[in-house]
Amino acid sequence: MARAHWGCCPWLVLLCACAWGHPKPADLGGQDVRNCSTNPPYLPVTVVNTTVSLSALRQQMHTQNLSAYIIPDTDAHMNEYIGQHDERRAWITGFTGSAGTAVVTMKKAAVWTDSRYWTQAERQMDCNWELHKEVGTTPIVTWLLTEIPAGGCVGFDPFLLSIGMVFPQSLNLSMPTRVTLSW
Ligand SMILES: *[C@@H]1O[C@H](CO)[C@@H](O)[C@H](O)[C@H]1NC(C)=O
Ligand SMILES: *[C@@H]1O[C@H](CO)[C@@H](O)[C@H](O)[C@H]1NC(C)=O
Ligand SMILES: *[C@@H]1O[C@H](CO)[C@@H](O)[C@H](O)[C@H]1NC(C)=O
Ligand SMILES: *[C@@H]1O[C@H](CO)[C@@H](O)[C@H](O)[C@H]1NC(C)=O
């Protein structure tokens, strides 16, 4: 009897320690969202661990000599609501909202999406990803210009971006930026 009693006690102590040590969920309108400022980060169970897929993508980028890679939310017909087969952005980020662009550099990974999806993104993305609460191409291009070295190449699937997205009118093309398209 005494033996059995001692046998289960360490487990109880361990369970209690785990419960206390676990960071509390961040309160974002009562939603269980990630908190990357705690140590270790707090991640809800809805989060997808993207560490392995990101490192595989970066390996490919290295092979192709790319400083950044853009993963849009569209399919080849510029649809917003797309077939599972085309859900590249959802696969690499874990974030399944219908709108949102991902950009991966060798050091950072970021998603831009609109206010409909901010909470969902905080519930689905792990701390490999920054969430940028902005829409449109200009914030992405501005970010890219600060993140990649001069002359660095940016890769994307040419079937998934329209000319309007690659050369937005809001981007001052007389800036000393060179866009080279190659695939
Ligand atoms: C994340 O945790 C820190 C430290 O506990 C806290 O100050 C911050 O408000 C939390 N962030 C969110 C989004 O809840
Ligand atoms: C994510 O997966 C990697 C590789 O399996 C692992 O090392 C890491 O600890 C995981 N991260 C989290 C937060 O679970
Ligand atoms: C890789 O790209 C850089 C520009 O970022 C260029 O200077 C270099 O020659 C390229 N290397 C190869 C192997 O293509
Ligand atoms: C675009 O950039 C060029 C060179 O930096 C500058 O002279 C010009 O005024 C800019 N045009 C606009 C509309 O911002």
Automatic annotation (TrEMBL):
One of its GO terms (molecular function) is hydrolase activity. InterPro entries: Creatin/AminoP/Spt16_N, Creatinase_N, X-Pro_aminopeptidase_P. It comes from the Eukaryota. The keyword Disulfide bond does not apply. Keywords: Hydrolase, Metal-binding, Signal. Residues 55-163 form the Creatinase N-terminal domain. Residues 1-21 form the signal peptide. The keyword Membrane does not apply. Belongs to the peptidase M24B family. This is Creatinase N-terminal domain-containing protein. The lineage of its organism: Eukaryota, Metazoa, Chordata, Craniata, Vertebrata.
